[in-house]
What we know:
This protein is mostly beta strands. The protein has one helix and 18 strands.
Amino acid sequence: MKRIVIIILFSSLCMCMKCEDSMLPEGIETKVYGKVYDSSNDIPIVNLKLIIQELNQEPGFSLGPNIHNLGEIDSTYTDENGDYEINFETTGRGDTYRIFSPRNNQVWQYYQNPVHIENLGSSNEINFDFLKLHPIRLIIKVDNDLEFLPIRIRHLFTINRSLTDINSTSNDIIKLIYVPLNFTTKVEFYRTKPDGQNQLFIKEIQPITDVEPVDIEIDLKNLNFEDY
């Protein structure tokens, strides 16, 4: 019985090795169009970049194919009404095409994955419903006696790399965060003590109701932080 199982597995492996990678021909013209909108606040998303991504799925030894990202083959930006249109052609190197907007501080995408383009060679209407984000300027007044630098900053809607650490107590520090309208958010400040104990200070940001720039002052002191 064991010998039969081994033979079956070996045969299946050989069949997988014989599978050929099927790429689509070059020059298939496809149209993708639609609207990017913030339905929660009835706002079109203007000047948002959308990318056509090409992939190639190769047969593999696992249960699924090996997927290779071949990169961006076309892109566009939404207009003043949130509308967009892209006309692209297949390159002859891939077999799967997706559309997405790269993570940015313009919108919150609800962790949405790239959307598969189904109808190659014809028209595809693909709409996106995102939350429009608006900047808030944080004026962080750092206490001269603040200990255990650096202070790390996190905010749900703001890309982490745009919130650099606080490494000095010499001046007020300006940081930009991005929030949707009518939404309470929290800014989290982290630090680590020499003994390895982590500490956290959470500042709640009250909802904004219009798109005008807002400044918020935050006092950053030792007594703000608690162990967690």
